[in-house]
Specification:
This is PLG protein. By secondary structure, the protein is mainly beta. 6% of the residues lie in helices and 29% in strands. The chain has four domains: 135 residues, Sandwich (Jelly Rolls); 104 residues, Plasminogen Kringle 4 (Beta Barrel); 83 residues, Trypsin-like serine proteases (Thrombin, subunit H); 101 residues, Trypsin-like serine proteases (Thrombin, subunit H, Beta Barrel). It has a six-stranded antiparallel barrel. The protein is globular, with a radius of gyration of 25 Å. The protein starts with a helix and ends with a helix.
Amino acid sequence: MWLLCLAACVLAVHGQTDSGCGSPHIMGGESGIITSMNYPSDYDNNAACDWQIIVAEGKTVSVKFETFNVESHSSCGYDYVAMWDGVEDSSATYIGNYCGTTLPPSVTSLGNSMWIRFRSDASVTRQGFKLTYEAKAPGAGALASDCYTGNSVDYRGTLAVTQTGKTCQRWDSQYPHSHRYNPQYYPQFGLEENYCRNPDQDSGGVWCYTADSNTRWEYCDVTSGCAGGTTTTQAPTTTTTAGSGTGTGTGGDGSCGAPAISPILNRVVGGQDARQGSWPWQVSMLLYGSSHVCGGSIIAPNWIATAAHCVDSNRSPSSWTIRVGSHRRQSTDSTQRDHAVSRVIMHERYNSNLIDNDIALMKLSTSITYDDYASPVCLPTVDAPGGTMCYTTGWGSTGGSGLPNILQQGKVPVVDRSTCNSGSYYNGQITDNMICAGYTQGGVDACQGDSGGPFVCNYGGQWTLDGIVSWGYGCAQAYKPGVYTRVTNYISWINDKMANN
């Protein structure tokens, strides 16, 4: 009976006549096609359709959308297509919800099954979607011709497992690890399938995000030297928990976003004491040489990025001292050094009512000498997607108990703008120049005293200044995540001010 049903279902879907509505339809074989009902005409209202794709044991399911037009909504609350890795309610892992006209990402399962769901409400219909699926063998070892030269940026082989045997995550997927290296934004790096690559020019060689939710990334074992004889490069395997950084560079040599001292990655409210030197771009802004007022970030030997609201009332450079290499707010650290400020540059369109364009630069009178406790953070190139786990640091209030002595750190997820602007959150107050980050239930946040400090995300071993601590309601409250200045909107402004001042 099951075999007869399977054959009939597969035949019907290949003929594009079966909507899959009603009981879940079981799909199999080496490949297949799934469409919404009536495709390419508009789908029906009140649709409830499910497909379970199950291929042979030992293989994975690769799904690719060819066309997609489903009623749009900021949170896909009307009509949507959803996907899960697996088909059992208790164990299937949610991948994502999709609507609108943008093609959902191509995804590949970890196991041999996937679940596709389509729902529509009582009004508005669209053309719907068409997707294809294919049974694929998991990535195996490197081909004999796999090799690279230099630091492996040119590697284009098909190795898709790490040195410890973990399967690589697809570059076009944000599951199980959110990351920046979407092939759409980085076509020059050959980010195909789940193949090992080196988009950030890591000196350790090619690497990949892993399909293991507990291990964010690892190096891959690939041969170096394409011409003539070959040698095998055994890069040291680095294993980090989800959301952690790699620390592959040495902060003391001036490379950005690479602490020489690895941070502890797991307070800011609900966070924890930071390891000394692990956030070497963090600075303390002292007003009249004594009182910690705000934080900031080293972005160049003579330049600090901070929030405009920190300096709005005190724009005179002589009012400020920048302390680098500091760990304890009330004590003297042997690693700390103070720098006078020669220029304070606020963004020309800073709006103190909306707290919009909340960014400022401070030029130091003397250059910072980089070492293990003072080095720059990288500037971002694209925005971190919703759900990305990032870190905020500072000496801000810890839940009403006053300012801490030890530098604090907190791990928080990016909240997409549509959610953060919804009625239960900030009800339209979030502009395109802002990022929200925090938990729905609250508990971890940046607070007073953390203003101007860094909000950093890690991609392939490199920490970038995705946000600057700006504002929020209260501290670590439910539905009120921290709000940060979106640094990607100001890269040209930053570069212009540094070049011409």
